[in-house]
Amino acid sequence: MSTALETRLGYVFRDRKLFDRALTHRSFGADHNERLEFLGDSVLNLSAAALLYHQAARQDEGQLSRLRAALVRAEALAEVARTIELGRFLRLGEGELQSGGAKRESILADALEALLGAIYLEAGFDTAQDVMRRLFAPLVEALDADVVRKDAKTQLQEFLQGQRLPLPTYTVLDVRGAAHQQQFKVECAAPALGLKVEGEGDSRRRAEQEAAARMIERIARGGTQPVRGQNKPVLVDARALPVSKEPGAQPADQASGPQAAQRPVQAHNPSGAKTRRAHRTPKPT
Which of 113, 142, 171 is the last residue of a domain? Predict the structure, then answer.
């Protein structure tokens, strides 16, 4: 006899232990769903990619990537999980139950991926993909590649690539809290711009997104410009560069040669106050 959850999934498990494992959070016991979640993540990504490839035939690779990212992000997974009331069926430890774990976005998203992984193990990819398509159909219909907002990490990456600069790096600085309520601190570094910022979140993914968003804000606010011609880029204040009124003339401080590349650029500042770097770098969109 199928459960209410299996009816909503449109799939009935033959292996009841596998079904229970997919619904078990690590706070409940050792036989939890994290390995199934790992597998289900790949099943979901491939299912979403195949679905979009056929249904969004006019979209290019970049648009397809953004559409897939919108489908498989934690918020979308949690939304789907709520439509089937997945939280009601989760097996959680006492601490998670008391802290509202059955409604927590990350737990719901992980459990949905675990279920897809379990279906794949028992019935194969085609069946798992069919389940994914039914569950995600309302989200797919609502997607529009022209209005899907790029996430902060994608914006930052595309901006740096457009400037022909190395990609940013993300480093976990700290993980605090109990296993079921961890808080991550991540550093985002853009070495070519000499910048480092930090972000926090209840998952590594969220912390990285927060750090990337702060990096975008910092670049837009600070006016950093990489200067090539040396082994290491340096930052300049664009306001300090003299502007020539003669067409084709080159500012003195931008003269060619190794000595010019090494010469620091100073802004005119009669008051002696610290000069804020001007913004000359296009803001990422």
Answer: 142
On whether both 77 and 185 belong to a single domain, the answer is: no
32 and 26 Cβ atoms separated by less than 8 Å:
yes
Sheet strands side by side (includes 183-190): 169-176, 183-190, 195-201
Low-confidence ranges of the chain (pLDDT < 70): 1, 144-150, 179-180, 222-285
HSE at residue 200, side-chain half, CA atoms within 13 A, is 6
Sole residue written with tokens 């106050």: 273
Q: What was the pLDDT predicted at 127?
A: 97
**Annotated catalytic residue 110:** no
Radius of gyration in angstroms for the set of CA atoms belonging to the chain, rounded to a whole number: 25
- Among 41, 96, 110, 210, which one carries the catalytic annotation? 41
From the list 113, 208, 210, 237, the catalytic residue is 113
Q: Which residue is it, tokens 């979901």?
A: 44
- Looking at residue 39, what is its pLDDT? 97
Which residues is 187 bridged to in the sheet?
171, 198
Q: Tell me which of 118, 142, 166 is where a domain ends.
A: 142
Number of Cα atoms under 13 Å in the Cβ half of residue 54: 6
Please indicate whether residue 41 is annotated as part of the active site: yes
